[in-house]
Each structure stands twice: as structure tokens, then as C-alpha cells.
Amino acid sequence: MEAIRKHKGLVCPLNRVNVDTDQIIPKQFLKRIERQGFGQFLFYHWRFDNDGNKRADFILNEPVYEQASILIAGDNFGCGSSREHAPWALLDYGFKVIIAPSFADIFYNNSMKNGILLVKLAEDQVEELLERAKNGRYALTVDLEEQTVKDEDGFNAAFDIDPYQKKLLLNGWDEISLTLQLEDKINAFEEKVKN
Amino acid sequence: MKPKTIVEKIWERHVVHEEQGKPNLLYIDLHLVHEVTSPQAFEGLRMNGRKVRRPDLTYATVDHNVPTKHRNVISDEVSKKQMTTLQQNCKEFGIPLADINHPDQGIVHVIGPQLGLTQPGKTIVCGDSHTSTHGAFGALAFGIGTSEVEHVLATQTIWQAKPKTMQVKVNGTLGLGVTAKDLILAIIAKFGVKVGTGYVMEYTGEAIRNLSMEERMTVCNMSIEAGARAGLISPDQTTYEFLKGKRYVPEGDAYLEAVEKWEEFATDEGAVYDRTIEIDAAEIEPQVTWGTNPSMGGPVSGQVPDPSHYEKQNDRAAIAQALDYMGLAPGTPIESITIDHVFIGSCTNARLSDLRAAAEVVKGRKVHSNVNAIVVPGSQSVKSAAEAEGLDKIFTEAGFEWRSAGCSMCLAMNDDVLMPGDRCASTSNRNFEGRQGNGARTHLVSPAMAAAAAIAGHFVDVRTFSNNPVFS
Predict the structure, then answer these.
(1) Looking at the DSSP assignment, which residues form a beta bridge with residue B67?
(2) Where is the Aconitase/3-isopropylmalate dehydratase large subunit alpha/beta/alpha domain (chain B) (predicted)?
(3) Interior CA angle at B308 toward B305 and B309, to 5°?
(4) CA-to-CA distance for A26 and B14, rounded, in angstroms?
(5) Tell me, what's the pLDDT at B75?
(6) Which chain A positions have a beta carbon within 8 Å of B429's beta carbon?
(7) Which residues lie below 8 Å from residue A62, measured CB to CB, with a gap of 6+?
(8) What pairing do the DSSP bridges indicate for beta strands B24-27 and B157-160?
(9) What is the domain partition of chain A in residue ranges?
């Protein structure tokens, strides 16, 4: 995965709670055997009507949010199924950072393993960001190294992240290679269980 | 010695490596694989020249995409490709596969327990969020994504931060006609869809002890709908009896030794949880969801809520959006909601006891003329067992379609898809927007409640509708 250190980008405010992975990417698009190309299906039934035309009333379709790379959402983002196609679709569409009060556990892990930075902020801070972003072009700088989210008008919030997850993201490491360095320990564990 | 929970006991026996500032590296005893979340993982192995470390601890089946009507007619080329890809991957990496025409084929969470692969004290993963089902046996079982699938294939381990533990204590006993499905739906309605985030839930209490293994699977299955990746129940005599004689369970003296080992995993008296929540089983009625997440539901005797009665702006907006999608007006009595479809199936409710419960309601009656109803057994062996008892006849004579095993209309990845506006009483686990088809409306219920709705054409309280003389 690609390392992420500091990201400055435009913001799209998705003011909904409990956004589930069925909305992020509907099941009919899970049949492909590749990792790439899922961005076109992101939020499919919210973005497109039954004839495949863009819905004017969905925020991602507003021209001012087209270039957004930071998504702000409500509580419990990514709940539901374990489909990694959800972070693949978000990443492929162009989102590098998602900010919400909380994320579902499986979605959190899946996103981190693909180099998407998930930032948990307090509910009132997220509300403030949704408010600031709702009128159009709005940029944030998310700094993973110093664990802060800032805009150019004085918004400044610190966030927590597990130090191990942070290290993986900063370095873009392949976790399997790291684990295989511990192969002796896995062998030893298997020997112990056998006896 | 300090009393421990089952989660602590399983955890400490599976730590391969621990190091300051890192999660633990945990050994995985059983890795279940299906066609949808695995192709990219196998491709990753190939690209890096890696092997599957323990194909003998890995077991695969096809379930999400499989046709349930004409078994070998897969009209969708992309679906077909995904299934043949799994065949090729299993062959290349030496993994056992219950393929589409194999007698063991079925929903991955139905066949694991049925074959006895699922056992107390095991760590079990699968690229599917309903892996929590296997927790019913006192296993630590949770869903993972495709990157983690690849990691487990390559190393038979996974990096995991130790979860917090939550006791879900179910006091008292369930009333007549109130099922395990109603219990878990009531828990989620009461505590919400994120109460379990960051936790493993352990279900305890009298009502839980009284449940059969199949009922316990229904409860643990929906732990993820409360936000918990894993939900489990300490093993007891019910667990050991169920496992006796299953194909992958040791026999004779080895079985007795296994039981002794399994008993050690049960939570100790006095063990401390990070959090405890409680519910009174006697208060619970048959449940029906009215909204677009599993916490948006309540008793069948109730009404669709009015968003304006909620204090928080977020709740008002979410409920208004849900009612708009569901095409329901505030205050509508649940029993007056008419349906077009009934789906009895899924890893939540497609085991033999579920089909029996539905058949008992259906027997000698006819499906309402406005309703299309299907039964999709959880596995091919559930299907044969049900046919041996004549359940298929009861369903087909009433007007249900009797299908072959698969995930089917639970997520509608195969041809079993509803049309926009269709309203379905479903024994599955998710009522998200579009889950059963774009624009389709899902109401989650128990198998008996789904069967009753199929006959009546609208929701009814099965306790006043059943054929069973205990209710009259």
C-alpha cells in the first residue's frame, strides 16, 4: 500500500449516520476478481438513479465536491459487511482520508490496510467540519505524523491513533512480509500445539 | 487463580508473538473461505510467490453467488468467473472445497458447525462479517477483509489488538412463540447498532442456557449487527451433545478428552467484563423491523415511530430517511403492513429447526395470493434432512418455492433479487437500503413470523396465528 504522511485536500460533507458498506458499494459490484476499478460504483444507488443518471440531490454529485479527497461523515461509518471492496471503492474514487465520530471495526481495519487514513474526532468537532464544508470549497490538512486536522481559518483538532497502525500507514508496509519475519515463532507455536 | 472470561482464555492460548506497542499476533485454527472475498487474496499470494501455510486448516465453499433455482445455470458471466476462480485457487493451493454440486455445499456459517469444524476454544476467521455465528460454540470467531484473508492464508496468523469484553446478560426465560431471532433483534433495538463496537460480546443468563445450538447460532450471528465483530457463548452440555458424531469431531475416548478440554474454556464464576448490559427475556415479543438498519424495529404489536418524537436531530433525520425509503407513515400499526415477498433463508435462520418452525405455521395453509414466498435451506444437507421429514412438501403444497442452498436473497448477489418498491418479510440479518435489491424494502423477522406473514399477506403475531395447540 501507499504510505500516507500528510494530506491536504478538499472536503466532501456526507451528513448521515450509520452509513453501511452496502451503500458504499452495493453487492452487484462485488463479483469482480480484481482489486481495481471499484471507484465508479461508489455509493452507486445514492449517486445514480435507476436509469444510471446522476442524482442532483446527492452531495458527491455537486460539482464543488467533485475533487474532494477527504470525506466527513456521521457516526458508525462503514457498518455492516466485511467487504474490502468498500475501502477499495473509496480509494479508487479518490478519497484518502475519512473523518467521523466512529467507524465500524472491520471497516476500520480494512481501510487501514489499504492506506486510507481514518480519523476519529469528537461529535461536535465533526459537526463543526460538516458545517464549514457545507457551503462549498473547503480544504483541510490532515497530518498523520503530528496527529492533527487543520483548516486555514483556525480549526485545529488533535486525533488519537494506535501507534502501530500509525507506523504501518507512515511507512506503507506490507504486513505479510513483516509477519513472515516471525516464521520461527509460528513454527514453534505449531510444534507446541501438536505436543 | 484470577477468574477469566472465555475470551481471555482463548486469547492467551493463541498468542504467537507479543511485543510492546503492537497488537498480538494470534494463531488461527480454522479459516473458512468463500468466492466473493478471496480472489484478490489468492492473487496477492501468487504475485508474491507465497503458499497457503495450512491448507488443512482452511475450508472453502461457494455460497454468495450460487443459483438456488437451476443449480448449474449461471447466467451472469462475472459470477461464474468468480466461482471458477475459487475452484482454480483451491486446486492450486490444495484447499478442500465444497463446490456447487458437492453434498456438503452450503452457506459457510451453516456448514462449519454441521461438519464439526467449528469447535469450542478455536479461533475462526472468514472473509464475511457473519463469522460471529460460530461463537455459539464458544469459539472466538470474527469476520475479516480480503487483506486479512491473504495474511491468514500466508501465515495462519492475524494481528489483533485485544478486544474489550461485554457481557450481554439475558435474564429470565423467553415466552412461548418468542424465538432466538426475536431475542437478538430486541437486544439490537434496545442497545443500538454500535453498542458492541470494539467489544466481543458474551451472551449469558438463563434464557441463553435454555437455547439449542441452532438458536444460539442465530443470536451470535447477529452480534455484528450490534457492532461486535465477535459474539460468543460459553460451551456447555448442549454444545458437546451437538458436536458428538459430527464428521470432524473426534470419536470415542478422543471425544471425551476433547470435551474435557472444551470445558476449560467456559467463563469462570466471578470473571470481570469491561461492560455488562442486561435485558429481561420475558418482556420480549415477536419482533419486526420497520427501518433501514437492524436496530430500527420493535414488537409486532407496536407501530412505526414518529421521527418528531425523537430528541436528537441525527435520530430524527435518520428515522425520517428510513421511513421515506421504506414507504411507511409514522404511527402505522406493524400488523397492518402488507408484504409482497417472503424469504426464509440465510446464515441467520436457514437451519433445520428454522425450517421446522416455519413449516409448523404453514402446514395445511396457503400462501396469500399477493405474496411470493421462497425457502432457501442453509446447506444441501439441511435440504436433504428437511426433505426426509417431508418439510419440502408442506412448503410447496402451501405455495412456497423450495430452493437449493445459498445466501440467496439475504444479499441478492445471485438471481434472487427483489424489484424497487417490493416489500419482503425476511429471516435474514440486514435491512439496509437496497440489500435485497435496489429500492426493495426489507423487514427482519423470525422464521415463524415470516411464515405467518406469508399466509396472512401482512404481519401478524404468530402467537395468535400458529397451528400449534400450545397457543390456543
Answers:
(1) none
(2) 8-457
(3) 65
(4) 35
(5) 84
(6) none
(7) none
(8) antiparallel
(9) 6-194
Binding residues of B for [4Fe-4S] cluster: 347, 407, 410
Contact B167, B272 (CB under 8 A): no
Provide the 3-class DSSP secondary structure of residue B187: helix
Collapsing DSSP to helix, strand or coil, B383 comes out as helix
Which positions ≥6 away from B367 have C-beta within 8 Å? B342, B373, B398, B399, B400, B454, B455
Length of chain A: 195
Q: What is the pTM of this model?
A: 0.97
DSSP string, A97-157: EEEES-B-HHHHHHHHTTTPEEEE--HHHHHHHHHHHTTS--EEEEETTTTEEE-TTS-EE
Report how far residue A121's alpha carbon sits from residue A111's, in angstroms, rounded to the nearest whole number: 17
B147, B156, B438 member nearest A114 (Cβ): B147
| Set of cell numbers at residue B456 | 396472512
Q: How far, rounded to the nearest angstrom, does the alpha carbon of residue A191 sit from its chain's CA centroid?
A: 39
Q: What is the pLDDT of residues B311-355, one digit of tens each?
A: 998 899 999 999 999 999 999 999 999 999 999 999 999 999 999
**Which chain B residue lies closest to A180 (C-alpha atoms)?**
B155
Whole-complex ipTM: 0.96
- CB atoms closer than 10 angstroms to residue B438: 18
Superfamily of domain A6-194 in CATH is Aconitase, domain 4 (3.20.19.10)
